[in-house]
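Hey team,

Filing this mostly as a record. A colleague (T.K.) asked me to run one chain through the structure pipeline before their review meeting, and I want the input and output archived in the tracker in case anyone asks later how it was produced. No errors, nothing strange. Just documentation.

Input sequence:
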Amino acid sequence: MKFERRNAQKYLRSFAKADRITFLQSGSSFFNEFTAQIEAAKRSISIQTYKLDDEITGQKIAEALIRAVKRGVDVDLVVDGFGSIELNSEFENYLKDNGIQFRFFSKISLFKNLRIGRRLHHKIAVFDQQTAMVGGINLATKYEGTDSQKPWLDFGVLIEGSICKQFEKICFLIEEKAFVGMPKQSPDVATNFSATNINIRQNDWLRKRSQILRSYLMAVQNSEKSIILFASYFLPGYRLRKALENAAKRGVKIKVVLSGISDIPFFHNASKYLYKWLQKNNIKVYEWTPTVLHAKLAVIDGEWMTIGSFNLNHLSAYASIELNVDILSKPFVHEVTTKLKQLIEQGCEEIKYDPNTSWFIRMKQLSAYYSGRVLMNWITFFPNIRNYYSKMVD
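Output structure:
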């Protein structure tokens, strides 16, 4: 994989070395690691997430955070006002009364302050500025699973090293209602793919940041051999679709994994409308069938990957605050690629477009696709959305 296009050198200079990085999958193992990091923290914990529940998983995390406060750890917790709108006020007060600095990002208030589009969608947890957990996994029971219910499929990474100070900085700037910053550029271009080099990428369109979208475009445009996408709520824009088309024409083998069981059937039908286009361009389509797929991840040519909160649709590109980590590391990305191929083999069904699909179903999918795009545009540009900056954190 060669980054030869314009701005590629600037992009590569933004990478920095991580001491260690570990691939994580939703389920009990992820949340055991999460609580273990809380228990090990000695000075500070910063957590920002779209959704926190007050059920089994939320309660377990809350108890661990309260124990940290009692040890003298400074704990900041910010959740999105819309994603966590169902959070019980008693649970909120319980957190605050026990010393946790808890806040909503742009808490929803009907009529006067209803701003659906502007959301804090990223998922970050930073412990003592030396360890960070980043990905797409919300702090909710559906991502951990129970004895009777499998967890939603999603991914994250555990990152160790001084680079985690940059994640702490991002959390701090959100808390202080300031411009969302970026890490300082590394002085050397990342060319050692045997090391683990990461690049913190953000999307915040109203703050003139579209870094994650540019990462996807650049990586697909420079792909040479293979692309694997795990994508929930898949409604990519024209530029990414065109980049995928061109990659397929160059002979790049592309696999797109979508959810066979969706928590939002409307968006599921909208994505299905694209199946014909995908297969027309020799892009293989798979559906994850054991449970809901919530993942947002891409691996390319066995040496580059991106993982985080960014969905391939209009809302993530233009409405929400998103964070991904791009990774350049042949050993690590090879490990992740092997894991993804196992998941495809064990839990996915390859979908073949049926040319005999009924007119009614095709029109239903067409309607969902265009209605979904219109809806996302409307949500994004809801009246007074730009006034978010006066009250980013309540």
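Quick notes for T.K.: The chain is about 35% helix and 25% strand. The domain at 8-351 is CATH 3.30.870.10 (Endonuclease; Chain A).
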